[in-house]
Write a structure and sequence with these properties.
Length: about 400
């Protein structure tokens, strides 16, 4: 017979999750009190956003060991942050200063594969510092697509971020990627202890609250510094990649209004795209709605220009970006793997029109049917299912 006292002692709670419970409650209050909530749908979207923040916080705290580095996929269709790019798969690995790392991979057929070392972290007060950024054109990629490079983490280096970006969702294929530390390879992991688990739960708790505060503040550093319903000329993305340019802005539209964004199709880059997001500073549903388009997905007019229509109501054109109930939100255009720099002439122009006037605002207006648009959505669903990780 097992004594009652022995059973109670063996099952006594260590209280390790209490800090995370408190953090979830604090995060819920931040979500519930968000100043941009207008509708019940906004609030429900916030709670779904919170679930992704909890998921990311746990993953980033528990799915890594500085002695045994691994690429973590923290941002995807179920965990969104920082106006995540619907065309990208993101990988993060934490670094320790002075340590040598080896990154191995096999190049897929995606439009861009880029690497960036970040110092510090994003916070509600400041952005992380980019210490190094390059794409796979600087690597020695073998005929079979394999590559390897070594990196000794410099002072201040905290994270290695990898972005694999798709221009054509239907045809491009992911590659493979992993990271290792030669000095610890082959050694068993350290035994878990109360101290290490306590630290992991504490890291998850701080990450959860901090990430929500960060992404509430971040768009006000950049997007919301611009006048509403305007877009900037192409310029270097703050804290971004050397070969990337972006145009940013934010929209505010009534239900009977549309924003027409016009820009040249750029054939001097592997990837060009536009997306809209929510006031949670996250991508909106890009799987069952068309809230982003790459140059491969968009229709280019005979004059070489791409014309996108951002609106709540359906304008009946292929290049419709659905606001999905969001009266306001960020807009971002990206050019990656550029072979030349861009000028203002490469950038977008914006016109606000009534939804009913969209046909007159498009010189090459070509309506599509409901069935044709549904086929576009079905293709998006298949592509997201095929390429995404979660």
């Amino acid at each position: 017979m097992v004594s009652t006292s022995s059973t109670n002692e063996g099952s006594a709670s260590l209280g390790l999750t209490r800090v995370l419970q408190d953090a979830i409650a604090e995060a819920e209050e931040l979500i519930a009190d968000a100043p941009f909530i207008r509708t019940e749908q906004d609030r429900l979207e916030g709670y779904e956003y919170l679930s992704g923040r909890i998921r990311m916080a746990m993953q980033m705290a528990f799915d890594y060991d500085l002695d045994r580095p691994v690429f973590v996929n923290p941002t995807h269709q179920y965990s969104k942050q920082g106006l995540d790019n619907p065309d990208a798969i993101y990988f993060n690995a934490f670094l320790r200063e002075g340590v040598e790392y080896v990154v191995h991979g096999r190049r897929g057929t995606t439009a861009d594969l880029s690497f960036q070392v970040m110092g510090g972290t994003y916070s509600a007060d400041s952005a992380a510092t980019s210490l190094m950024a390059f794409d796979d054109r600087e690597l020695d990629v073998a005929a079979d697509g394999t590559f390897e490079f070594r990196y000794v983490a410099e002072p201040g280096a905290k994270t290695l971020i990898v972005r694999e970006v798709f221009n054509d969702w239907d045809t491009e294929e992911r590659g493979t990627l992993w990271i290792e530390r030669p000095d610890t390879l082959g050694r068993p992991a350290k035994e878990r202890t109360v101290a290490t688990l306590t630290k992991k739960y504490d890291v998850a708790a701080r990450s959860l609250v901090g990430s929500i505060q960060t992404w509430f503040a971040f768009p006000h550093f950049f997007q919301y510094q611009e006048p509403v319903n305007t877009l900037t000329p192409p310029r270097s993305t703050p804290g971004g990649l050397a070969s990337q340019r972006s145009s940013i802005g934010h929209y505010e539209l009534a239900d009977d209004e549309a924003m027409v964004v016009t820009l040249p199709r750029c054939d001097d880059c592997a990837y060009q795209a536009i997306q809209i997001g929510s006031d949670w500073y996250a991508s909106t549903d890009y799987e069952t709605h068309q809230t982003s388009l790459t140059k491969a997905q968009a229709v280019t007019d005979p004059d070489g220009l791409m014309r996108f229509v951002i609106s709540e109501g359906n304008p009946g054109v292929a290049n419709w970006l659905e606001t999905t109930g969001h009266r306001t939100g960020p807009v971002m255009l990206r050019w990656q793997r550029l072979e030349r720099d861009l000028s203002p002439e490469d950038g977008p122009t914006v016109e606000i029109v009534k939804l009913a006037e969209v046909p007159q605002a498009l010189p090459h207006y070509a309506p599509i049917t409901t069935e044709e648009y549904a086929a576009r959505i079905a293709a998006r669903q298949r592509s997201v299912a095929r390429r995404m990780l979660s």
